[in-house]
Design a protein that fits this description.
Elements lengths: L2 H7 L5 H9 L2 H8 L6 H11 L1 E3 L14 E3 L2 E3 L3 E3 L12 H12 L4 E2 L7 H7 L4 E4 L5 H14 L3 E5 L9 H6 L9 H8 L2 H15 L32 H10 L3 E7 L2 H9 L4 E4 L13 H12 L4 E4 L5 H9 L4 E4 L1 H32 L5 H5 L4 E3 L13
Bound molecules: flavin mononucleotide (FMN).
């Protein structure tokens, strides 16, 4: 999409979804958009934000407001970042590089997934402050060489995702024909044929310029190909992962270590006692256990156990006002997934840059209307009231 059309047609993060749907083959769009089973947690994530309303303050001279946030040794432009998402290279050509590049240029944190398609060494050279997310097996012989590779690549912040002991029951993927690896066949060919922009701009361009894409960063060595009739991905031994492995990782990893996928105050307490540098409260965007509580609802209870360890969260954040609600409740930073993936599919790096810019402007505008000059002011005064239950979603005023 051209910069002019982006500016005219994409006015908020939610606008990217329809644009991405028109560009991505059905199984790939479904993979990004989908959640799990009955989508209960996915819906709860968004509803959680509607259960809070702002108490604004007036006449506070907000002309000097500042939305920057200090987090894990660096000051970022705004209190939000980009979630790790696998297979960004299916959303756009060199999706991993475009995502981290846009975040680097806009000075917001970005976490690259262990299920990425560009070798991590190249990603770290492109955007050195990127955080790396790993899925690890409960087996030191597997994760120790992986940690060594991530360190040698130059990453200084490592995120371990801990909410995926087994693969989720993503019925939506079965319905749309999405698998990893993707199985070439008549069905996939027909889905791709209806999206010629994607066929030429993403798939054929990738094959021509970079060859067959692989899961480059799942382990110490390259993993399975992205397209194959016969290959399978190795998900083994994730269910044996335990706190003892995290203690071992903490000892070996000299950089910052963050856990992602925690919801229980007791687990936050355990993470703090092990010396973790941060925790991202998350139910994986409602993609793992359907019915898992929304991270926003657990934030207050978890803060009581976090001490000085920063708590972040993700899931359902779509507006600057959502970001500020989480910040007012005590989150140091929030992360956003699907909308940035749709932005990448819509207009590549320019799409992500536009999404970041929209959100930054919403946060700045909302902070002013809240009568606050900085983010800490929100957290230390009564900025929110709880409504008890989520109001019914309001239909858009203009279609
Ligand atoms: C397409 C997609 C791929 C994802 N891949 C990963 C991943 O590789 N590692 C991970 O820790 N989380 C992954 N997640 C979960 C996100 O990091 C994040 O928890 C979730 O998307 C946040 O919810 P939101 O999409 O509502 O913002 C993925 C999410 C999506 C939508």
């Amino acid at each position: 999409m051209s910069p002019e059309r982006l500016a005219l047609q994409i006015l908020c993060l939610n606008d990217f979804e329809a644009a991405a749907r028109a560009r991505l083959p059905r199984p790939i769009f479904g993979y990004v958009q989908g959640a799990v089973e009955d989508n209960l947690s996915f819906r709860m994530n968004a509803d959680a934000f509607r259960q809070y309303a702002f108490i604004t303050r007036t006449l506070t001279d907000v002309s000097g407001r500042d939305t920057r946030r200090h987090l894990l040794g660096k000051t970022y432009a705004s209190p939000f970042g980009i979630c790790p998402m696998g297979l960004l290279g299916l959303s756009c050509f060199e999706g991993d590089l475009n995502m981290v590049g846009a975040a680097r240029d806009a000075d917001v944190p970005c976490i690259i997934s262990g299920a990425s398609m560009i070798p991590m060494e190249e990603i770290a050279r492109h955007a050195p402050h990127t955080w790396f997310q790993a899925y690890v097996k409960g087996n030191p012989e597997s994760y120790r060489p992986m940690l060594a590779r991530i360190d040698a690549a130059g990453f200084r912040t490592l995120v371990i995702t801990v909410d995926i002991p087994v693969s989720a029951n993503r019925e939506n993927n079965v319905r749309t024909g999405f698998t990893t690896p993707l199985r070439p066949g008549l069905r996939l060919c027909m889905d791709v044929a209806t999206r010629p922009r994607w066929l030429f701009g993403t798939l054929l361009r990738t094959l021509a310029k970079r060859g067959m894409p692989y899961f480059e960063n799942s382990f110490a060595q390259r993993g399975a190909p992205i397209f194959s009739r016969t290959a399978s991905r190795d998900f083994g031994e994730r269910d044996t992962l335990a706190w003892s492995h995290l203690a071992d990782m903490r000892e070996r990893w000299k950089g910052r270590l963050v856990l992602k996928g925690v919801l229980a105050p007791d687990d936050v307490d355990a993470a703090r006692r092990l010396g973790m540098d941060g925790v991202i409260l998350s139910n994986h965007g409602g993609r793992q256990l359907d019915g898992a509580v929304s991270p926003l609802h657990m934030l207050r209870d978890c803060l009581g156990r976090a001490g000085a360890m920063p708590l972040m969260l993700d899931g359902g954040v779509r507006r600057g006002s959502d970001v500020l609600k989480a910040v007012a409740l005590g989150a140091r930073c929030v992360f956003i997934g699907r909308p940035f993936n749709f932005a990448l599919a819509t207009a590549g790096r320019a799409g992500v840059a536009h999404a970041i810019d929209l959100l930054k402007r919403e946060i700045d505008r909302d902070l002013a209307m809240l009568g606050a000059n900085d983010l800490d002011q929100l957290a230390c005064r009564a900025s929110l009231c709880h409504l008890g239950r989520a109001p019914e979603p309001v239909p858009p005023m203009l279609a």
